[in-house]
Amino acid sequence: MSLVDFKTSRSKALHGRWHESQEYLQRQVGFLACNNDFFSKYYYACDADVSEDCLRLNIYTKDLPSESNPNVKKPVIVFIHPGGFYSLSGQSKNFAGPHYFMDRSIVLVTFNYRLGSLGFLSTGTKEAPGNLGLKDQVLLLKWLRLHISRFGGDPSSITLLGYGAGGFSITLHLVSPMSRNLFHKAIIMSGSATGQWDFPNHQMHLAKRQAHLLQCPTGNLTDIMKCLMQKHHLEFANTLPYMFEFGRQNPLMLWKPVVEKDFGQERFLVEHPVRTYQNGEFMKIPIIIGMTKDEFVGPALSILENETILDTFEHNFHKIAPICFLYDANNNSKSLNISDELWKFYFKSKPIELNDLAHLYSDALTGFATHRFVNLVARYTKIYYYQFSYPGQRSYIYFPDNEPYGVVHHDDLMYLFVIPAVSRIFTEDDDELHMATILTKMFTAFAYKGDPNKPSDEKLRDIRWRPFSYKRQYYLDIGDNLVMRGGLNLQRYELWKRLFPLNWRRLN
Question: What are the CA-CA distances from residue 121 to residues 10, 131, 390, 480, 490 (Å)?
């Protein structure tokens, strides 16, 4: 097969990339990096880590259809990588080493899509209506529907698995008219679009900030777009650190998907997604959703370790809190009241402690949105809720000494994918291999039949994961033991429900 070229608004082409070597598929897969010589023998040569020509997919399987076995038809898991819509990738050397899933009978797909200004620039005009990165994802799903059977995948059994911005993306695909019927199950990890933030029609302020950083005009939109179109993609990448508003990386969700105005284009989002969920107008498919126990310790730690930033945070909380915790930044009475309530609830005494600030970040960025999602969706379809609390030997945050600080954002990913920067591959000598086995088996069972329970499997026979319901708010605590519990962080989320209430009647 040859490269498949997909035309886009700015890129000359987006190249589908796949594996064609039966010999390779009989080898152990996963430890190959994009710039590795062995890797390039079997794939078309790929660009450096930063490229605008980035809609590239990797397909991993142990069995390709052949003359002797032409009817290979396995469930497909499609991984949408994390990174806040501006960083990371689906490369095996980053967040998607496929070893553990290749011990299961599935086809795994990982891919890249346009990020940052190149993927999410939105001016509210026909020149840049927005959501290009999400439309890249839709194009990938359409390609899989047409071609995945040639790699032994079942196009009628596609499960989206997304983390962080990837999970956020899935909760938008569930309501997008462009994504309808392109997938059949969803696993949403540490990210949801149903939080307290707004979904604007544009982010013109980011377009102007990007233009200023690239020494483009910032007044006339035509001049802005003409200048930006002439800039090299590395210029966009190199200015990324200067796009944020406070500290090292706040707001963590800088580029937002937007509700597109109608300029005759196919629109990814046509209304605020929470409204769509309230009306029950989303894809009713089986869902797993959850988060880690400690989530966003990293951004909290970056504030507390810098005296200047901490002092600014404390003395200007009413102005900075809306930036960090993603609510209306207008300095009106409502915004001031929300900031006061958050301060009183999370910081009952000074000085600010890491655990309290981490809870505030976690609830603002992940926890409340996930809580709201399960309560909106459980009335319509089966949804399995979890908290990941397994304390492995490796973590993204080691603090204060050389020991993991709890179970933080991304820590659970290392039991699904090999992430070389964080952990080597687990072996029989590692206790963590047991968790990698449990997670991949549960997710594979879910990919097969929409249910993570599998009593016939000796590793899963003692697990009874009950679906969430509004009355019985079950969640599976995935720790040293797997235990069904109820009412995850309810006291904390009740505050957010009161500060950001929803109208629960049907909206038309």
Answer: 12, 8, 38, 43, 36
* Domains assigned to the chain: 37-297+364-499 (3.40.50.1820)
Residues 404, 409, 410, 415: is their CA dihedral positive or negative?
A: positive
Give the model confidence (pLDDT) of 34-63 as tens digits: 222 222 222 222 335 678 888 889 999 999
Beta strands 107-111 and 57-60: pairing type? antiparallel
Q: Which residues of 471-487 are buried (b: 16+ CB within 10 A; e: fewer)?
A: eebbbbbbeeebeeeee
Host H or E run for residue 161? strand 153-163
Q: What is the DSSP letter of 418?
A: B
According to the model, what pLDDT value does residue 505 have? Answer: 58
Q: Which helix (H) or strand (E) holds 400?
A: none
Residue 14 to residue 5: CA distance in whole angstroms: 6
**Measured at the alpha carbon of residue 94, what is the angle toward residues 92 and 96, in degrees to the nearest 5?**
45
